[in-house]
């Protein structure tokens, strides 16, 4: 399959209601990112992994059993990814980009460092996932695409190609947002059998739900990212036209 980049199109002019919807959406994205960092990431820095495992916090019971190297990678992953999740949302605030471009550049550097550190950490811990091969391939692919799209965004801005930079950053942050969407999908999938009136038992419901999230947490995000990119007239992927 060949990949083609569409020529840059003129961005549609935003209406008043469009701008209001954009602001509401952005506020929601930022608040959800802050909530996930507070409830999922911060607890890992409040006690030892061993103690957290005793309290069944997140995936602490799984990682308390792994090597010190993998545990170190888990902490590095959480710190880098949580930093990227919060700072990345700020970067889409137009006021900051136009009124304080230097701040935007500095936040961008810290964001990409968070992506690099969080992505490498994520790749190291992926083979220990309780989801087995699905976790390894799902989180592994997410980690590779996260690093690659961050690199493309950085390269684009270094050559002053702002539309490509924006498009790659939308893709990259959509992948960062897997940290939020995973934690939305998981409870939904966990409770789905109850809503469907099926027999329910926590361990099997969790294993079933957790087998889906390593891919489900990021694939739909990329589709939404591509839609946003097209809507804004930024350079997007196109499937090739095949001539018979
Ligand atoms: C976008 C690329 C990301 C990749 C490749 C990735 C990868 C992973 C992997 C492989 C695990 C272990 C899961 C398992 O063992 O099944 C994990 C856990 C974790 N990740 Fe990420 N992650 C990403 C984004 C994020 C973000 C943005 C956050 C922000 C808060 C985050 C926070 C965490 C936390 C807190 C855990 C521990 C598990 C838990 O208690 O929920 N990750 N990540």
Description:
The protein has helices at residues 16-41, 49-54, 60-63, 68-91, 94-99, 101-125, 132-158, 162-176, 178-195, 202-216, 219-231; strands spanning 4-5, 237-238. It is mostly helical and 244 residues long. It has one domain (17-237). The chain has a two-stranded antiparallel sheet. The radius of gyration is 19 Å and the shape is globular. The two termini are 15 Å apart. The structure holds protoporphyrin IX containing FE. Protoporphyrin IX containing FE (HEM) is lined by residues 36-37, 40-41, 58-59, 62, 77-78, 81-82, 84-85, 122, 125-126, 128-131, 135, 139, 142-143, 146, 175-176, 178-179.
Bound molecules: protoporphyrin IX containing FE
What class do helices, strands and sheet pairing give? Answer: mainly alpha
Helix fraction, binned, reads over 70%
- Report the portion of residues in β strands: under 5%
Spans of at least 5 consecutive residues with low confidence: 1-8
Q: Describe the main β-sheet briefly.
A: 2 strands, antiparallel
Please tell me the overall pLDDT: 93
N→C terminal distance = 15 Å
Q: Looking across the biggest beta sheet, what order are the strands in? A: 1-2
Pattern of helices and strands: EHHHHHHHHHHHE
From the spread of the alpha carbons, the general shape counts as globular
Q: Any idea how many domains?
A: 1
Number of strands: 2
CA radius of gyration = 19 Å
The total count of helices amounts to 11
Outline of the structure:
This protein has 244 residues and is mostly helical. It contains 11 helices and 2 strands, in the order E-H-H-H-H-H-H-H-H-H-H-H-E. The protein has one domain (17-237).
């Amino acid at each position: 399959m060949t990949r083609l980049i569409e020529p840059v199109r003129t961005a549609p002019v935003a209406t008043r209601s469009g701008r209001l919807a954009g602001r509401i959406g952005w506020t929601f994205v930022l608040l959800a990112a802050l909530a996930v960092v507070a409830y999922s990431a911060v607890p890992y820095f409040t006690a030892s992994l061993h103690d957290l495992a005793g309290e069944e916090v997140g995936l602490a019971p799984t990682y308390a059993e792994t090597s010190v190297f993998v545990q170190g990678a888990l902490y590095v992953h959480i710190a880098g990814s949580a930093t990227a999740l919060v700072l990345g949302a700020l970067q889409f605030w137009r006021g900051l980009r136009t009124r304080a471009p230097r701040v935007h550049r500095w936040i961008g550097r810290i964001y990409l460092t968070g992506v690099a550190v969080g992505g490498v950490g994520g790749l190291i811990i992926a083979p220990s996932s309780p989801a087995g091969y699905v976790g390894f391939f799902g989180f592994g692919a997410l980690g590779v695409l996260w690093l690659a799209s961050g690199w493309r965004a950085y390269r684009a801005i270094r050559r002053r190609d702002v539309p490509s930079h924006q498009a790659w950053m939308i893709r990259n942050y959509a992948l960062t947002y897997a940290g939020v969407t995973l934690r939305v999908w998981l409870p939904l999938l966990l409770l789905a059998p109850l809503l469907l009136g099926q027999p329910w038992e926590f361990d099997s419901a969790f294993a079933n739900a957790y087998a889906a999230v390593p891919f489900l947490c990021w694939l739909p995000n990329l589709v939404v990212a591509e839609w946003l990119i097209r809507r804004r007239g930024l350079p997007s992927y196109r499937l090739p036209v095949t001539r018979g």
